[in-house]
Design goal:
globular, 17% helix, five-stranded mixed β-sheet, alpha+beta, 2 helices, 60s Ribosomal Protein L30, Chain: A, two-stranded antiparallel sheet
Length: 172
């Protein structure tokens, strides 16, 4: 195994899920960084394509999406290690560890129930995994075993810093 950048860890593991019995996790990707949601796109103008037709030029509204996608894609490429994309029904588990506000209580559990939207975090991460070739298409995801936003140290699956744990398994 090559030395990995500090923000990435990878595993190819077997695990027992009490809800689904034995399953094989094809990929487990841990990414440290600031999870960013797939937001709206803003119109930047028109251009003429190779087909001679006019096409709208759209750009991400959030400047945080690109660095997050790059972190996820880099980690996924290391984990994938040249293997072919997964191409069957997939079960995914994504746990996003978000920065805890300094104003949040220190002595009791709190929940990150503010922006960003969990579904938009999943969407930006799915797009990065598609770009890394982890799966043939994000339409292959048919089930989430867990999709959550948590604060560091306040959940059994939380990282010690901001980032995400992503597990992907083929449903047999």
């Amino acid at each position: 195994m090559n030395a990995l950048p500090q923000q990435f860890t990878l595993d190819r593991i077997n695990t027992t899920d009490p809800n689904a019995g034995f399953r094989t996790v094809q990929y487990r990707i841990v990414v440290y960084g600031s999870p960013a949601p797939q937001g709206s796109k803003s119109f930047k103008g028109m251009l003429t394509g190779k087909d001679g037709r006019q096409h709208a030029v759209m750009a991400e509204s959030s400047k945080k999406v690109k660095p997050w996608r790059n972190d996820v894609k880099d980690a996924a490429l290391l984990v994938r290690n040249g293997r072919p994309p997964l191409d069957g029904p997939l079960r995914v588990r994504m746990i996003f560890t978000m920065p805890k506000p300094s104003s949040a209580p220190k002595t009791r559990r709190t929940y990150p129930m503010r922006m960003p939207d969990l579904s938009k975090l999943a969407r930006s991460t799915e797009d990065a995994l598609t770009g890394a070739g982890i799966w043939a298409d994000d339409a292959r995801v048919v089930e989430y075993s867990r999709l959550a936003k948590v604060y560091p140290g306040e959940d059994r699956d939380a990282l010690e810093a901001c980032g995400a744990v992503i597990e992907i398994s083929v449903i047999a």
